[in-house]
Amino acid sequence: MKIGNIKYGVTALLVGLSMVSCDDFLDRPTEDSPTVANYYKTDAQCIAGVNYLYNSPWYDFQRGFFKVGEVLSGNYYWGSSPYLTFTVNSTDEDLRNMSYSLWAVNGHASTVYNNIKNSSGPSDAVKAQTMGECLLWKAMAYFYLVRTFGEVPIIHDLGATIESGTYNDQYKVERADVYDYILMTLEEAERLLPETCSEGRLDKYCARGLMAKVYLTKAGLSGSLNRDDLQKAKDYAEMVIKDSGRQLMGNYADIFRLANNNCPENMIAWRWTADGENWTRQNTLQSDLAMVGFDEFGDCWGGYNGPSIDLQEAFGVKPTDNPSQRSDKDDRRKATMMMAGDVYEYFWQDKGGFDYLKFIYNINPEGYTGADPYGKGGPGELQSPTGANEVKHLYGNANDHLKATGVAALNMASSLCTPILRLADVYLVFVEAQVLLDGGTTTNPDALEIFGQVRARSVKSYWTDPLSTLTFDDVWKERRLELACEGDRWYDFVRLSYYNVDRAISEIRAQKRNPWWGLGDIYEAYAKSGNWSVDASKCMYDTETAAPNVTASSFTIPFPQEDLVFNSHLSEPAIHVDVRATFSY
Q1: Domain check: are 192 and 278 in the same one?
Q2: Do residue 181 and residue 319 come from a single domain?
Q3: What is the DSSP string of 369-396?
Q4: Whole-angstrom distance, CA of residue 200 vs CA of residue 273
Q5: How open is the CA angle 74-76-78, to the nearest 5 degrees?
Q6: Domain-located, residue 335
Q7: Residues 148, 66 share a domain
């Protein structure tokens, strides 16, 4: 860890005082220039001291979150990105920002935890709640760190580490010990957190849901599946499913809309705010993922990338499908990727909805009466090399943001939350654990029912012909479709690589990660005349670009160069640490 970044955690108090109450989750407090000596004296101050952990320290992780989770995994085409070609090295800027962000989360969470633990004045209930929130965010940071970089140091108490002068003298710890540390941290978070809290905040079931996912991931770490870990993954997931009171939202697309930021399905999420008060508190993903002209701020440049051909085919569609004849059996496809013929009622509501192709080619839809051209500022040509563009992580235009939140969006700034653990994910953790416990195939009625609830929400015909047996392949694909473009798919491959690296390698090598040539002429003709005609001699998938050279070592990403320079121990073998004997809360 770079010295400047690990020391950054010491400033946690002052950065964190930008929000105040449990009911008004992202409101600013009235206190002016507080210090540790005069802060954390009341319940409201403890809440305020924790609130920023839901956003600011995570800010620089946003781009790495998507590139690692989706581009590296083959779900998303991103030009000549090294994440697409498996050529990421230690000098990559997004990798560096991702690493620094995760260590900043760890440092901030530790500092705020200690400040609150040592405070007097707040109620025991609020002290416990806010300390639990700190620990859950700390565990989440380590969960990303170990799945991304493999063996990493454990910085248990940032203040003590800085005081001892050993912040650049930390040894990597074996992965099994890091997972044990994550679970120990989550166990304490679970003990401290309340059964329920206001919408958007963390509670015991958020900790249990994350514990289920950690146990499922850890289960294969030794190279073979550990039944005790699988059983614990199933048990913790079952607690969430049966006891939390949460339910899946009825309409899949609604999960990702601004008006539903705090819906119960979004169990753990980055809670952004576009108030302009602090640059690092806002969601900027629309800028990276949306087409030029999608909003009024001139801050969108993501049109030249898009969901991969491989992901499209997983949904059962192709970019050359005639939109008037395309059979969309899964509602998640349209809620994940824009394709020819798609119209979205929840984007550009003041213009009657967003028509994908008419926007691209600056064509007024039938009945549009606005003073300006409907597609004013649109790209004028198809940018996406895959014939599709992103839907998730987009909020729309300024009117859409204001209508949903009462707060205006800003340049590169929205309040749209970023889910990083959804209830549906926990459902599928339960099912996968059961399938693996039963040897790769199950007829367990609970697993069938829970799987069916996830699938039937988006595939309305499912219950007319439900599965009577579930295989690992069923759950593996369902996770991909359910969580596509949510920053999670690469970590599924990491989990798989622990105990079946050959399958993980072969699947990635077989993906269609390349562009599809000649789509622009087809789309433009359809947009302007309604004519759909595909000349296969001019419109084809790129089969010439070779598949990436994926090996067993590909499932661990290198440390940033700066980290290696400042801490030479990161280049040395990891050490074993008896976590529970060494650390305590």
Answers
A1: no
A2: no
A3: --SS-TTTT--SS---TTS-EE-TT---
A4: 13
A5: 110
A6: yes
A7: yes
Residues 485 and 389: their CA atoms lie apart, in Å, by 11
What does the pLDDT read at residue 578?
98
56 and 196 fall within a common domain: yes
* Residues 358-394: tens digit of each pLDDT: 999 999 988 888 888 887 788 999 999 999 999 999 9
Lowest model confidence (mean pLDDT) among 140-149, 323-332, 426-435 = 323-332
Averaged over 446-455, what is the pLDDT? 98
pLDDT (0 to 100) of residue 278 = 84
List the domain range (segments joined by +) for residue 303.
274-414
Averaged confidence pLDDT in the chain: 92
Once rounded to an integer, what is the mean pLDDT over residues 108-121?
A: 95
**Structural domain includes residue 278:** yes
**Is 42 a residue whose pLDDT tops 80?**
yes
Q: Residue 272: CA atoms inside 13 Å, Cβ hemisphere, count?
A: 29
Q: The pTM is what?
A: 0.95
- Name the H helices within 438-566: 445-458, 472-483, 489-499, 501-509, 519-529, 561-566
- Structure-block tokens of residue 515: 């562009």
Q: State the average pLDDT over residues 500-506.
A: 98
End residue of a domain, out of 414, 439, 467: 414
Say yes or no: 164 and 278 in one domain.
Answer: no
Q: Which two tokens stand for residue 531?
A: 């004519």
Contact residues for 138 (Cβ-Cβ < 8 A; gap 6+):
105, 106, 109, 110, 113, 185
Give me the number of domains the chain comprises: 2
Mean pLDDT (whole number) for 501-506 = 98
Q: What token pair was written down for 348?
A: 């550009």
Domain final residue, candidates 414, 430, 447: 414
SS3 287: helix
Least Cα distance to 351 among 389, 408, 396 occurs for 396
Whether 383 maps to a domain, the answer reads yes
Is residue 486 a part of any domain in this protein?
A: no
Strand partners, 470: 442
Please, are residues 382 and 267 in contact by the beta-carbon 8 Å criterion? no
Please tell me whether residues 196 and 286 are part of one structural domain.
no
The string of pLDDT tens digits covering residues 241-258 is 999 999 999 999 999 999
Query: Which of 482, 432, 490 lies closest to 237, judged by CA?
Result: 432
Report which DSSP code applies to 132. H
Which has more pLDDT, 1 or 312? 312
**Which residue shows structure tokens 């028509």?**
355
CATH code, 137:
1.25.40.390
Q: What is the mean pLDDT of residues 287-316?
A: 97
Taking the C-alpha atoms of residue 162 and residue 366, their distance in angstroms, rounded to an integer, is 64
pLDDT of residue 220: 98
Q: Are 377 and 293 in contact (CB under 8 A)?
A: yes
